[in-house]
Amino acid sequence: MNTPVRTGAQPRRGVRREQLSDEVAAHLRAEIMTGALRPGTFIRLDETAAALGVSITPVREALRTLRGEGMVQLEPHRGHVVVPMSRTDVEDIFWLQATIARELAATTVTRITDHQIDELERLNDELEIAVGRGDPDEISTIEFAFHRAFNHASGRIKLAWFLLHVARYLPALIYSTDPGWGQQAVAGHRLLIEALRRRDARRVVQLNGAQFTDGARRLIARLEEIGMWD
């Protein structure tokens, strides 16, 4: 999961320009995916740079990235505008993630070592503590680490890389700020770990895919609540 630029934060020394651009893109992508930036909204370079505490250059580069992803378009003499996002678009994003994730899970269950399963259990214990503390940033970081470890255990690094890039569209804070989601994630991970120890491939694939069904449901409900498609 990507870490958004902290609103009002000053540019950090030593941060590469490309990394800063990626962080701005992640922030804007999450704003678009959650409906904070509605279709038809113009994203102004100077206003966005000031709000995020960065220069105009990383904002311009971030918008170029989002334009390549079809999330914004450049209108001559007017600037970058958020393009419409349908319910089907959201469903397609989660379908693609689920499809790749199930394939990785099917391989992981045959290749993962006991030591790697122990590491997943340790990460899930850390996640449970973070959920108890209600720390969204820590929850997002640990959740990302858990799934990265799970996917890398498959040995299919290229496929895991593709999943990582599709996962950029997941607005992490929608989930990590929801206590109910956090508790459900911890419980789901426990079931996944138990299934891995039994080498129950069918159950592992089922559990791994279910998280994307739940993720899509939660995001679509959020977008409906704010009237995205009214």
> What does the main sheet amount to?
3 strands, antiparallel
Strand arrangement within the widest β-sheet reads 1-3-2
CATH superfamily of the largest domain: GntR ligand-binding domain-like
Give the number of DSSP strands.
3
Helix content: 55-70%
Number of domains: 2
Query: Helical stretch count?
Result: 10
Determine the strand fraction and express it as a percent band. Answer: under 5%
What structural category do the secondary elements indicate? mainly alpha
* CATH class category label of the largest domain: Mainly Alpha
How is the topology of this model organized?
Elements: H1 17-33, E1 42-43, H2 45-52, H3 56-68, E2 72-75, E3 79-82, H4 87-111, H5 114-133, H6 136-152, H7 157-166, H8 172-176, H9 179-198, H10 201-225
Helix pairs in contact: 1-3, 2-3, 4-7, 4-10, 5-6, 5-9, 9-10
Walkthrough of the structure:
The model is unreliable at about 1-15 (pLDDT under 50). The chain has a three-stranded antiparallel beta sheet with strand order 1-3-2. The protein has two domains: about 10-80, Arc Repressor Mutant, subunit A, CATH 1.10.10.10; about 85-225, Four Helix Bundle (Hemerythrin (Met), subunit A). The protein has helices at about 15-35, 45-50, 55-70, 85-110, 115-135, 135-150, 155-165, 170-175, 180-200, 200-225, and strands spanning about 40-45, 70-75, 80. By secondary structure, the chain is mostly helical. Strand 2 (about 70-75) and strand 3 (about 80) form a beta hairpin.
